[in-house]
Amino acid sequence: xxxxxxxxxxxxxxxxxxxxxxxxxxxxxxxxxxxxxxxxxxxxxxxxxxxxxxxxxxxxxxxxxxxxxxxxxxxxxxxxxxxxxxxxxxxx
Length: 92
Description:
This protein is mostly helical. The protein has helices spanning 9-13, 26-39, 47-56, 59-81.
């Protein structure tokens, strides 16, 4: 889906290495780090990360970003628990 929205194939392929990839901007890396912190079991959003986010996003944008990440996490858990198969939307 991202490629149909203008995200390059190279950038999509580099997603797993976003932290070290020159293809991602500072704010993109920060948003992805936030998503990882919200998603990966055993991790938390540190005060430092939250403060960095506040430097790029106003309150409304931060709430929207957080809600989007939380929704995707909930959807993933829901589908996995109910054995809903992937729709293969990530494939090119």
